[in-house]
Here is the input.
Amino acid sequence: ETPVGGISLEAIEAAVRADDQHFPVTRLVCLENTHNLCGGAVLPAEYVDSVGALCRAKGLRLHVDGARVFNAAAAAGVSAARLCKAADTVSVCLSKGLAAPIGSLLVGPADLIRRARRHRKVLGGGMRQSGVLAVCGLLSLSVMTKRLQEDHDSARSLAEGLAQVPGVILDPSTVHTNIVYFRLAGGKAHRAVAALKKKGVLVTAKDDATLRAVTHYMVPAESCDYVVRCVRDVVAALQ
Here is the structure.
C-alpha cells in the first residue's frame, strides 16, 4: 500500500477477522524488510513499531521476513535489532546479501525456537555435519554485514548508468539498497534476459517489460559500467 511496501494500520485492522466460527482465526501479521517488489525499499523502524503495537493490542503475532534485513539496517543507519524490536519472530537469509553458500536463520524466543527445531525434525529438515556451513554463516554475520553499503553504492551507480540508456525507464532515487528494477520502453524483457546472459550478465524478468538486477559481494563496483554497456547494446538490438 505504501511506496516502501508497508501495509496501513487501517488495512491491517480491517483484515482481522471477527470472532465467527465460520472463519479462521487471525493470528499473524507478516512484513518484509527490505521489500523486494518495491525495489529493496526499507520499512522504517517506527512503522514496524506501530504495527507491533497494533498486533499486541489485537492479540496477534508479528513476523518480519528479514531475508535482507541487514541491508535495511545499513540503509537506515540503525541496527537490525532496532528494526526488528517489535517483532515476535524474524527470518534472516545468509545466502543473499551476506554471501554465504547456503543458510537462513529463524530468530525468536527460546521456547519458540525449541518448538521450531522439533517441527523441522518432524518435517525432515534436519542436516548432518552442517557445522562447516554454520562457519560460513558466522562469517556472514560478523564480516559481510559490515560491507553492505558497498553493494548499495554499486546499485545506485548501476541505476544512474541505466537511467541514461535510451529505451530504459528508471528513476535512480527509487533505489534504496541493492535491488534495481528497470523497465524497457519496448518490452521484450524475457528476450533481453537471454541476450544479457550471453554477455555474462544475469538479470531476471518481473514481467515482459521489467528487469531486476541485484548487486552483491560477487559484483565488483567496476562491473556496473560493463552491465550498462551490455544493456545499452541489447536494448538497441531489440528495438
